[in-house]
Specification:
By secondary structure, this protein is mainly alpha-helical. The chain has 21 helices and no strands.
């Protein structure tokens, strides 16, 4: 193995990521866009610093695994259970509604039901990493909009467990094993949430097991990789194992210690994921199929905003607030990449389908500023208490009207 060759790769990746991250940060744009661009520039679509398919596969699997571990670690089941009704009902409506429409279109267009199911799951999921950053940028993490959005993200992250297992089994002929996997997936989620949501704190004697707090990140990541490996031997995804480990640790009394000690490397772990998205992004594929990619991205985004808003209105959320949350949740999620990878391994889709999902997801993650701008406009209407459809349409499409709303908002909320 040429270690100098590998080191030069890592050096280039680190320099490009740091440069683009700083540049995007100074432009007040999400730094994750810089990381995705880094992956594109150093990958096969750019200067091919990393061009080996094995290397790309390794980085992508590692990026997804680390991201899901961090997501699981930050999910607080007890907090979720305090407000579980709206997020859970929303997620159920979303999955059932999307599946019904996908199956209907599959029959009309003569598409495989498995592909339809994958499309439904794919369109339901939102990006936890990106949306939390959007909420932070909008200052909404501690408001009703933030609480409902994050609750829905938690519900989606939990729901993705049976989704992964179902997609994995879809490549096999329908039979008892497939239906058994579906039942097992649902039962596993129910048992896991019940166990972690008990009143008693799950106690891990971290001080006895780990005498030096500096070792907490090392031991935690080692445990993450170990469980991921064990789970893979059972025929499940490594990323699924990493998510479970993060979810378990994140709901013990050691949660805060682990979060405090792993925070310094959290941004590096997230960087790995977004770079891996860029590495998988195929510019040649986008150039050749730009129309279908942009059409699919537009259709999925508009569909998610409309369906999210309608579903939240059904749950008695005010229209302006529902629209804001609907826009915030419109970004496609990192779990979409996991489902695409599993679907390809199961033979549900080929390289074309996987590349299409990667392109759509990467572009969706890259247009965070658009979602921030739109959600900020409707959020101001929510504060003003204006829930008319005409005002919402005007504030989204009219620059003059949004300027008027901003002035009204500033008058009601003068800067100290």
């Amino acid at each position: 193995m040429d270690y100098e060759y590998i080191f030069s790769h890592l050096t280039v990746v680190a320099i490009v990521a740091a440069t683009l991250g700083v540049l995007l940060g100074r432009l007040k744009q999400p730094v994750m866009i810089g990381y995705i661009l880094t992956g594109i520039l150093v990958g096969p679509s750019g200067f091919a610093v990393i061009s080996s398919q094995e290397s790309i596969h390794f980085y992508s699997e590692l990026g997804i695994l680390l991201l899901l571990f961090i997501i699981g670690l930050e999910l607080n089941i007890k907090s979720f259970l305090k407000m579980w009704k709206i997020p859970t009902m929303f997620t159920v409506i979303q999955v059932i509604g999307s599946s019904a429409i996908a199956f209907g279109l599959a029959n009309i267009l003569d598409i495989s039901l498995y592909v339809a199911l994958l499309t439904a799951f794919f369109s339901c999921l939102s990006s936890t990493a990106a949306i939390v950053k959007v909420l932070e940028h909008m200052g909404e993490t501690r408001t009703d909009i933030g609480h409902i959005s994050i609750g829905i993200l938690v519900a989606q992250d939990i729901a993705v467990v049976p989704m992964m297992l179902i997609i994995k089994q879809c490549g096999q002929p329908l039979g008892i094993s497939v239906y058994g996997s579906v039942i097992f997936a649902i039962a596993l989620v129910v048992v896991l949430v019940w166990y972690l949501g008990r009143k008693e704190k799950i106690i891990i004697p971290t001080t006895k097991l780990i005498p030096n707090t500096d070792l907490i990140p090392v031991v935690t990541l080692a445990l993450c990789f170990l469980i991921a490996l064990i789970v893979s031997f059972a025929g499940l995804s490594e990323a699924y194992g990493a998510f479970l480990v993060g979810l378990f640790i994140g709901n013990t009394q050691a949660r805060q210690d682990v979060l405090n000690n792993i925070k310094p490397i959290q941004n590096v772990l997230l960087m790995m994921f977004f770079i891996s998205v860029g590495l998988m992004f195929d510019l040649k594929f986008l150039w050749q199929h730009w129309f279908i990619v942009l059409l699919s991205l537009t259709a999925v985004t508009v569909w998610k905003i409309l369906f999210n808003t309608i579903s939240l209105r059904m749950l008695s959320i005010e229209l302006a607030k529902a629209t804001t949350i609907g826009i915030v949740l419109a970004q496609l999620g990192e779990f979409s990449l996991v489902l695409a990878s599993i679907a390809k391994q199961s033979g549900i889709i080929g390289s074309y389908g996987q590349k299409l999902i990667i392109c759509i997801t990467a572009l969706s993650l890259s247009i965070s500023p658009l979602f921030i701008a739109l959600a900020s406009k409707t959020q101001r209407l929510s504060v003003l208490g204006d829930n008319s459809i005409s005002s919402i349409v005007k504030v989204i499409f009219s620059g003059k009207f949004s300027g008027l709303v901003r002035k009204l908002f500033d008058k009601r909320n003068p800067v100290e």
